[in-house]
Amino acid sequence: MDDQLALRLQLFREGGQIKPEVADFVTAELAALEAEGNTVTEATAGMLTSHLMMALTRLLNGEAIEQFLTDDQVAAELAGRPEAVSRARAVAERARRDLGAALPDSEVNFLGMHLAVLAQQAPAAPSS
């Protein structure tokens, strides 16, 4: 994680916009993504970070998350990225288990899009 993304996390924590357990959860997810070989920086994961933090906080605050008009489009885009969908579902399951925040399908799809974009930024494996 680069300094700019760490600053984003710090600002969320200090700004009181999110619950500390959400910041801890998202930080752990970003660390796991980085450990898997993804390039986790402000440029590659800034939007993912903000989106996930705000969605989880809204859920924990009892706020409804609306369906998006673009749900079908997003699902169609993700049809070719089953690994991103699988990863998004795993994150959603951990959020449900660890935080009690059940992300709706539309949020899982958007999370999948963020993860698909992040995966495209991963460094290429060296050829042998």
Spell out the key features of this protein.
single chain, 128 residues, mainly alpha, 6 helices, globular
Output the structural class.
mainly alpha
Distance between the termini: 28 Å
SSE arrangement, N to C = HHHHHH
- Indicate the proportion of strand residues: under 5%
Reported for the largest beta sheet, the result is: none
Q: Residue share in helices?
A: over 70%
Q: How many E-type strands?
A: 0
Q: What is the 3D shape?
A: globular
Radius of gyration, whole Å:
14 Å
User: How would you state the average pLDDT, rounded?
Assistant: 88
Question: If helices are DSSP runs of H or I spanning 4 or more residues, what is the number of helices?
Answer: 6
Task: Please mark out the parts with pLDDT under 50 across 5 or more consecutive residues, or reply none.
Answer: none
Would you kindly provide a written description of the structure presented here, covering whatever features stand out?
The protein has six helices and no strands. The relative contact order is 0.16. Helix content is about 70%, strand content about 0%. The protein has helices at about 5-15, 20-35, 40-60, 70-80, 80-100, 105-120. Helix 1 packs parallel to helix 3 and helix 5 (about 80-100) packs across helix 6. It has about 130 residues and is mainly α. The longest helix is centred in the middle third of the chain and has 19 residues, at about 40-60.
